[in-house]
Amino acid sequence: MSDMIRRYGFTLTSTFCLLTAFWLLVLVILPNLYLFENSFRPYLPVVDIGGPKDVYTLKNYLTFFDSPIHISVFIWTVVYSSIVTFICFVIAYPLAYYLSKVAHPRSLPTLFLILTIPLWVSEIMRSFAWFIILSLKGPLNILLIDASVIEKPIRWMTGFRSVLIGLVYTYVLFMLFPIFNAIQSLDTNQIEAAEDLGSPWWRTHWRVILPHSKPGIASGSVMVFMLSAGSILVPTLLASTSSRWFTEIIQQWMFESNDWNTGSAYAFLLLILCTLFVTAVMRTFRVKLSDIAR
Amino acid sequence: MSASVELENVCADFGSFRAVDNVSVTINAGEFFSFLGPSGCGKTTILRMVSGFISPSQGVIRIGGEDMRNSRPNQRPTALIFQNLALFPLMPIWENIAFGLEVRGVDKKKRRERAEELLRLVDLPDAADKAVSQLSGGQKQRVAIARALAVEPAVMLLDEPLSALDLKLRQHMRAELRAIQKRTNVTFIYITHDQGEALAMSDKVAVMSHGKLQQVASPREIYDRPANGFVASFVGENNVLTGTITGESGGSASFETALGTFAARLGPGAGKESKLYLRPEHLRLTAEPTAANRIPVEVTDVAFEGNFISIHTRDATGKALVSEARNDGRSQIPERGARLFAEFDADQAVILADGTPARKGEPA
Amino acid sequence: MNRKSDWLFRAYLVIFLGYMLLPLLVMGGAAFNDSRFPSVFPWVGFTGQWFVELWNDPRLLNSFKNTILVALAVVALSVPIGTAAAILINSLGGWARSTLYSLMVAPILTPGAVIGISTLLFWNRFSVPSGLHLSVLGQVSYISAFVMLLVLARLQSFDRSLEEAALDLGANHPTVLRRILLPHLYPALGAGAAIAFFQSIENFNVTLFTRGPYDTMTVYVFSKVRSGITPTINALAVILIAVTLTGAIAYEIARRRKQARLDALGPPPSDDE
């Protein structure tokens, strides 16, 4: 800190500290603490707030644990978000490897520019595109019928099928980029050394490249899982009545029942879920948070 | 303009580690003064304290007689040349040089003029609008000097600025730095671990080890009259013989070793734990014994170095001794295996206290 | 790398690019189809009416204006905050650094719904009603982290002796910041501002919970999709894609020019004069 004052002077250093403190305290820590506190308060009419009924209670969380439907929605959200994460990894890894080690480095900026176009076109448009493609009389069914793969159009938007498709499409790039960065930092000589020592390609991947890309995989997995589990747009657009997403229940509490306290309890459950996932990933891959978020 | 620099009982602590230990030294105005020592001896810390990037944990630093305790780096009459030069990569050369004037509010036209003037001084008249990346190592060096000179400092601080250059250029820049110093008469404080640089350029040299000053003297005195064993072995080469002082008379003593007893000059602080230091160029090899100080040896290797010849020998106990002779083009080079006598004069061998005390916070 | 696998990889890349871009094409196509329901099959006929309808939608124009305002506000807040945080964390070490770092990146790993709800509740406590100002604050809380990461990465390549050299030459602290540090950070600040801007435009989750009665573009499109789908949304998508493409192509041209300039500029001279 004294080094900082010497470099930037007292005024600038305090400005930096104040800006950071504003961000972390006022925008991050306090709101989350308040969310936590609020989730233990009962939902009361305005007149009762601060009155004798306004005491700490576990009622909001019990609402969740007493509702088999909500629990099952929660579990399915976890399961399908994990599946999405895994599919994204399977799709992204070979491509990340190709782009970082095989493709010509000069073509990379152009390729990345093309790849990021869907990112700039907002998430809602991306899911909406699949809403059109997957509709009963949509292009996918017509294409498949024309190619005589199927005879009758398939109802894609039932169960979690379409949600899965939509989430993978929307978030696969969040897996691709971190893995690409990780593999790119691997010295190509190491790959060549492994091949020179007679290692078959799959063993080179398993023993050299995959271990090196661990931080990237961890980072991609955390992002994709968090975005999927927290997604509102994709499930709303692509889910059917038989496939509800946990965020939809949070929305119900917030907007339909106007019960912000139970809503915050549910939101807090989602936060705990993501925290647990991050911790689990850090443990399995033995990476630090600074490796994940870069 | 030029100013003296005084350090009075200066200490620098980093946690429990004492990087600079009670250093007192006076650097006269207009002097070319070098701090010489191995890496980690505390010399860079001294430089950073004089420039104001570190505050001494004890002691006083005065520049031009003025206590610098409350002056920040940008308020001191010093200019620092960094080891990596620290040229601003995003500014063209002339803006680099004129930066010190820019922050002092000099108007643009004057700044440009002054920058071009300084570029002529350092022999780079056409570089004003070039980018830093377009210059070679030696050219960058000169720009760094010009940039430091632009603020007309009273004291110039140089942190091993030549270490990144190759040998030829380094030797050329030595002469150039010396010439610029004489021309501007600014006090130069030069940090280096290269004894050749320190000896060749300086008016005065301070040899440092483990945070302590070992000796402050002219280059000649440092080399010919080292104050202790550390200075003797760090500056130049030495053959070192272990033994004990058996008799003293006036400035000389007899020194008993496994190879015999020799007469030698008694250095400052020589006591029980002393060693005999003998420069290779003072060790003559002869076929027949001529002097009292002599050791029978066998030649083990001969290295021809161009301007001198280095002859490695071994005595009866297996102790290696090195002798150096100037190559005058006529001298005979002994054969490997030849049996000769290594001789030296008593006034060219010195008995000195051994080693240097460990600094505070460091395991002995 | 042998030829066969290289060919396989290339095919895979092409398929992947198709997978990424074709859905956008389908959506774009539907914008020109004269069908009440957005689709490319059956192709009823070419029409521009959905663009006209879009233009005549005052709610859309209003939401567009709101989106831009929010995005500008987010940029104005998150760039200074992220930069300050990066400089601060860069001069720290040990546990203080790792603790602060974890706190700073945590918002990136927090679901948008949680950020939105916590922001809404927190400010409501101080009787600040929901509205776009809360959307800005909520978005800033995680977008600042992106800026921080970008600036921090750029700071790694900054030679700190440049600051010392400037101070030593007599510059005061604001001058060091303005003339030495910020010019080095400009690329990261530019990238940070761009990312902040687009992240804000694209944001839905945080905005949904904090917006109060106001619309932003994503929220408006969302409500349109829910209430009754018309190809005006596709028309909007086409405009978005067109803007993106124009930007992308402009960027690519600028990049190639710069590359060519760099190639033309040779290496520095050597010292063997």
Structural commentary:
Chain A: The chain crosses the membrane at residues 12-36, 73-99, 111-133, 163-183, 217-238, 265-285. Chain A: One of its GO terms (biological process) is transmembrane transport. Chain A: This is Spermidine/putrescine transport system permease protein. Chain A: Keywords: Cell membrane, Membrane, Transmembrane, Transmembrane helix, Transport. Chain A: It comes from Gellertiella hungarica. The complex is a heterotrimer of chains A (294), B (364) and C (273). By secondary structure, chain A is mainly α. Chain A has one domain (58-292): Orthogonal Bundle (MetI-like fold), CATH 1.10.3720. Chain A contains 14 helices and no strands. Chain A is globular. The mean pLDDT of chain A is 87. Chain B has 364 residues and is of the alpha+beta class. Chain B has helices spanning 43-51, 93-102, 108-121, 137-150, 167-184, 195-201, 219-224, 229-234; strands at 5-14, 17-27, 32-36, 58-63, 66-67, 78-81, 155-159, 187-192, 204-209, 212-217, 239-249, 252-257, 260-266, 274-278, 284-286, 294-304, 308-315, 320-326, 339-343, 349-353. In chain B, the strands form four sheets. A six-stranded mixed β-sheet of chain B has the order 6-7-8-3-9-10, sandwiched between helices. Chain B has a five-stranded mixed barrel with strand order 11-12-13-20-14. In chain B, strands 15-19-16-17-18 form a five-stranded antiparallel β-sheet, with no helix packed on it. In chain B, α2 runs parallel beside α4 (137-150) and α3 packs across α4 (137-150). The longest helix of chain B is centred in the middle third of the chain and has 18 residues, at 167-184. The two termini of chain B are 45 Å apart. By secondary structure, chain C is an all-alpha fold. Helix content of chain C is 76%, strand content 0%. Chain C has helices spanning 3-30, 49-55, 58-90, 94-105, 112-125, 132-156, 161-168, 173-202, 205-210, 217-227, 232-264. Chain C starts with a helix and ends in a 9-residue tail after the last helix. Chains in contact: A-C, B-C. At the A-C interface, α1, α3, α4, α5 and α10 of A face α1, α3, α4, α5 and α6 of C.
